[in-house]
Design a protein that fits this description.
Oligomer: single chain
Number of helices: 9
Helix content: over 70%
Shape: flat
Distance between the termini: 61 Å
Largest sheet: none
Number of strands: 0
Structural class: mainly alpha
Length: 143
Amino acid sequence: MARTSNQHIRPSLLQWLKENFYTRKMNSVPGWIVMGLIGATLGLLAVAVDSKIPIMIAAGFVGIFGVLIILRFPEVGFYVSILASAFIAMPERLGIGGGPLGLMIEAITYLSFLAIIAKQYRERVKVSDFWQNPISVMFILII
């Protein structure tokens, strides 16, 4: 089947988006325009609504990145929860004010547990060995 000149000249919208935003990593004129619009929108939100909105958006991106890291590497979740447990009282001692650090530790522990199970299913490991291990049983009982 022969291609028409129109199909050869004009790529599809998805190919154009992939080329400009993924392959070139936003280092093109449309990418610069989008980044400028995002920056102007964040600035407008900071001035018009509240100055904490850009900080909350950045914290949200850091949180999403952290969840993806924990899902990919479950041992990082356990290290972070142990580290946060060691410093759970530090914000109050420094006078910053207490935050929901205990809830964060629980959420990271649950996420790490789900990441372990997902990793076992992804790697096709025999799951019955995991559930017969006494450490796994105690982990579920503690949660």
